[in-house]
Design goal:
By secondary structure, the chain is α+β, with helices and mostly antiparallel strands. It has four helices and 14 strands. The protein folds into two domains: 76 residues, no CATH class; 163 residues, no CATH class. A hairpin with a 4-residue loop joins strand 7 and strand 8.
Length: 255
């Protein structure tokens, strides 16, 4: 009874003090190694957010015998400034590891990265590639796993001639790129996801709709009084004032 009374009192207090300033439950991801930019994809009122790993390794051209690898014994990290194309879509680059361009197996493509907004980690996501025959383009796509667990695949996988790199990456040092083989290509992917899906979640956003409102407060009260895991804000298995205070702090602190 004390638990219920306390929860109702404190949550009612939160309602009275916070309704005048509606909040959103979105905390931008600010990891400096990732690329972030809102892009308008032509749908009014629905901004989209791109997240890519910034490391890339230019892949081999399947038809080139003279220059099988664009990079020789090097992997380069570039803070990519993507060039938007039709409807605000941008380019994303495969990331691969290599050691010796004379040995295809040691220079095979191993990973393609998406950003897992649930855990803030980069996850290798690549299928359909035969490691014993790495000269062929992978039959896969780029994948973003958003904070609600939704998966967003690339809308298209394609190749870009190596000579187009300076146009795609204006202002970047590409001195380590070997442009001697005009037929060499870069394999690229394009993916987009709703912006509210690629933000870290706010614990007080009980229904994960990107807003903090009365629905979240009533949901917390219900979870607290029935001792559901969602209301155990300190994770100690005990439902008490600490959890109520934790909810209120999360509700007020989320931007």
């Amino acid at each position: 009874m004390i638990r219920r009374t306390t929860a109702l009192f404190l949550c009612a207090f939160a309602v009275a003090t916070l309704l005048a300033a509606p909040a959103t439950a979105q905390t931008p991801i600010t990891n400096a190694i990732d690329f972030h930019e809102e892009l308008d994809v032509g749908e009014p009122g629905v901004p989209y957010h791109w997240i890519w790993d910034t490391s890339f390794f230019v892949l081999p051209n399947a038809g080139s015998a003279a220059r099988p690898w664009i990079y020789d014994r090097v992997e380069v990290v570039i803070d990519i400034a993507f060039t938007p194309v039709t409807h605000g879509l941008g380019w994303g680059f495969l990331s691969a590891t290599g050691d010796d361009w004379n040995d295809p197996l040691s220079a095979q493509i191993t990973t393609v990265y998406g950003h897992d907004a649930n855990h803030g980690t980069l996850e290798p996501l690549l299928a359909g590639l035969n490691p014993a025959d790495p000269e062929y383009a992978p039959e896969s796509d780029e994948l973003i796993i958003a904070r609600h667990g939704n998966e967003y695949h690339s809308t298209e996988a394609m190749t870009v001639p190596i000579f187009q790199l300076p146009d795609l990456l204006p202002g970047h040092d590409l001195s380590m790129v070997d442009f001697s083989d005009p037929f060499s290509v870069v394999h690229v992917f394009r993916t987009y996801a709703p912006m509210n899906e690629v933000y870290y979640p706010c614990p007080a956003d009980m229904n994960n709709d990107g807003l903090l409102d009365l629905v979240d407060i009533t949901s917390f009260i219900a979870a607290f009084t029935t001792q559901q895991l969602a209301a155990d804000f300190d994770g100690n298995g005990i439902y008490d004032l600490v959890d109520v205070v934790g909810f209120i702090e999360s509700f007020t602190d989320c931007p």
